[in-house]
Amino acid sequence: MLQIGLIREEKQPHDNRVAFTPLQCQWITRNYPQVNITVQPSDWRCFKNDEYLKAGVTLSEDLSHCQILLGIKEVPPEKLLAGKTYLFFSHTRKKQPQNQHLLQTILQKNITLIDYECLVHEDGQRILGFGFFAGVVGAHNGILTYGKKTRTFSLTPVHECHDFKELINHYFGTKLPPLKIAITGSGRVAAGTLEVMGLLGIKYIPPEEYLINNYAYPVYTQLKAGELYLRRTDKTYSREDFHLHPDKYDCRFLPFVTATDILMNGIYWDERIAPLFTWTDLAKDNFRIKVIADITDDTNGSVPSNLGDSTIEDPVYGVDRHTHLKTAPYLSDTVDMMCVSNLPNELPRDASQYFGDQLMKYVFDELLKEHSDTLHNATIAQQGHLTERFSYLQDYADL
Ligand SMILES: NC(=O)c1ccc[n+]([C@@H]2O[C@H](COP(=O)([O-])OP(=O)(O)OC[C@H]3O[C@@H](n4cnc5c(N)ncnc54)[C@H](O)[C@@H]3O)[C@@H](O)[C@H]2O)c1
């Protein structure tokens, strides 16, 4: 019998998500008689202990009988059970200093660590992520902020809704003024923002038309990497080349700053990639953007006016376009920034279900195999030893 445990999230502040919902646990145990799931009780998980009990799932503080333990965020080192196989987001593969002790403890305690972030399909695309609901919540927050700033309409904050279904109910009867939204990116986050565009009936306009026309109703356009970046030397774009040499590419977003009211930023970004615009562009009179939902959310990254994370409770701050300083939100001549770093936590039930679905579809069967390349390639530590693929972490893992 394979015993799987769902651990309680112990990292502070407590995360409210979980790897499998009660119904997913029920489905698994019905369809896989050789698997049993035990859930560690939690007072802050988005699914209540009772919901698991009602689904026929066993609750137990003690998970020592489990071989595999599933979490979401980093597990505090003192909570790690020796000799177990853990799956969670460890944030150790880039030698993140705050998690050095975590990896060292994993090795000391003979633990096997499979990192969700390292689970990829054959083509290198990540299997698991919370981007879709980050996109949904980010898009909603961006529009809500614009309504508050312009005092033209109001929307219910997402975290006040039980789940996505309830959020959608609030959209009925919402009439938005004419406004123009630019969405960047083409991954999971962008897909989530497009979902909200559809639900609110905001019309898609191709980028070239969006740039030159005005509309009597709300519209959006989407700029994928191929529309955003051009190689300096020959004005072409190749995905493979861009991923390898992003520093050779210029960003073509600038014309959109004069045609856009809300920017929803969902691109992949790192330091080698040109920002969407500069502080100098931001200070110009023709800079039209009033609200930026920076879902990508890198401080001083693809959006220079990202001055750091905001929180679910206090999601928006203003930025003065000339002094570059933070201001109160919703003022008339500032840019409002929505930079929440944990957006999926506003819709934790749906985000967890989506995560569990992906886990079920692409990872679960691998856990039942004697050997799985997918799992092996995402295994940072195997019974207390770094695997070959992650041996570059040795100096970080050494005590
Ligand atoms: N604020 C939040 O709560 C939150 C939540 C989830 C994700 N995010 C962030 O949003 C951004 C987008 O996330 P996502 O889930 O849409 O990602 P994704 O993995 O679904 O998509 C990323 C896109 O970037 C492309 N890409 C991958 N590697 C690249 C590279 N080296 N160079 C250029 N492009 C590359 C991919 O082809 C894909 O189209 C990320 O920066 C992520 O950290 C924020």
UniProtKB/TrEMBL annotation:
Annotated catalytic residues: 73 (proton acceptor), 91 (proton donor)
Single GO MF annotation: saccharopine dehydrogenase (NAD+, L-lysine-forming) activity
Pfam families according to UniProt: AlaDh_PNT_N
GO BP: lysine biosynthetic process via aminoadipic acid
Keywords: NAD, Oxidoreductase
Biological source species: Chitinophaga oryziterrae
Protein name from the UniProt record: Alanine dehydrogenase
SUPFAM superfamilies listed in its UniProt record: Formate/glycerate dehydrogenase catalytic domain-like (SSF52283)
Residues that hold NAD(+) according to the record: 241, 268
Family: Belongs to the AlaDH/PNT family.
NAD in keyword set: yes
Domain of life: Bacteria
GO cellular component term of the entry, any: cytoplasm
Alanine dehydrogenase/pyridine nucleotide transhydrogenase N-terminal domain residues: 5-137
